[in-house]
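Running co-folding for magnesium ion.
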Amino acid sequence: MNSCVDDATSNDADSDVMAQGRKVLHIDCDCFFAAVEMREQPHLKDKPIAIGGESDRRGVIATCNYPARQYGVRSAMATANARRLCPDLILLKGRMALYSQVSAQLMEILRDFSPLIEQVSVDEAYLELQPEQQASEVAREIRERVRNELGITVSVGGAPNKFLAKVASDWNKPDGQKMIPPERVDEFVRVLPVGKISGVGPAFQGRLKAVGIETCGDARGWDLKELVRRFGRSGVLIYQRCRGQDNRVLSMERIRKSVSVERTYAKDLQRQDECLAEIPALYERWQERIARTPWQAEALAPFVKVKFDDFTQTTLADVTELATPEGFGRLLMQALQREDKPVRLLGIGGRFPQVSEQQLSLF
Ligand SMILES: [Mg+2]
């Protein structure tokens, strides 16, 4: 572990100090595709596996597990190369439908902790917490739920902004977490290699090194004007990141304008009354989520979502209907009349009233 910050101390400290600023978590699955495959095929667990295209088709490795990494196999490496490094490598074709299903389940779990979520990719997301939520505790709960419910692991980083949260999630990977509370930001960033800043690739790193900048601390000796003169707009990025600054909010277009919950059933629901019987449990979970927003359930426009066994789906909303168990029940009955097929997934939700970005940023 190459940590420069004592993890136990920073974890204990986070609740009080992070309350003064933002609390951002970055959640990143550990070798996601490979982890899902190991869950599905436990006998592969300790063998080197990779998901990718065949070498005779000039394929590349998408993901590999840790046993394969020990041979030097990496993501984006040519499969032919990977086979040379690890002759016993078990190459699997990707099952995208399965991975996106697990991804959707992961995002569902994350939404239980905050409605402010930015999904970055299939296996990665940022969460913005409320001041009273304790970041290290939320991180622990997320890791536990993902492990228990999905059978894979995630690593979580927590910090006052997106840049540092992402660096932190990578710190104790796999299956780890790291918190960087505000009062530790300065010492943490000072010794951070500039290559850890997203946007600073090998070429840019080389140019920085040429002028003596290898760590964030090195760059702090430069004033903004000089950095901009040398490196243009990237100079501004360097100036801010080297001081641990990042004002980016979670991407607004990705932030939901609604709060919903859904459940995929292990066995398809056959009859209308079976579906109706699921409403109370869904409603309870939905209420828990609403409690984390500034809205009352009654103020939201309800909708229901039904996915059938053939994966077709229908969504029905009615602004005149109330977001109550009875209201959702009536919507569900209407939706089920559209198709007469077994049901594999039910969801309920409510759309926020028209809100501005400013209002959204308040919670
Ligand atoms: Mg990942």
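Result summary
The chain has a mean pLDDT of 87.
The longest strand covers residues 258-269.
Job closed.
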